[in-house]
Amino acid sequence: MSGTSKANGRNSQSGSGSADKKHRRDRGGTIGRALRTVYDDALREDVPKDFLDLLRKLD
After folding, report:
1. Where do Polar residues bias regions lie (predicted)?
2. Which residues form the domain of 36?
3. Which of 5, 6, 13, 19 has its CA at 20 to 30 Å from residue 37's CA atom?
């Protein structure tokens, strides 16, 4: 891309803006679902015994 087209905000691939936005949105949805899955899995894990022992010592 030349300096002039950068300065004017023009992209050399006209018409691809909406397709790029849709691709980013789809990818963002995929990442969001993956993060929710990891978070849900972490919530289901048992608290380690050593950590519970430490918490009990705080009482």
Report:
1. 1-17
2. 18-57
3. 19
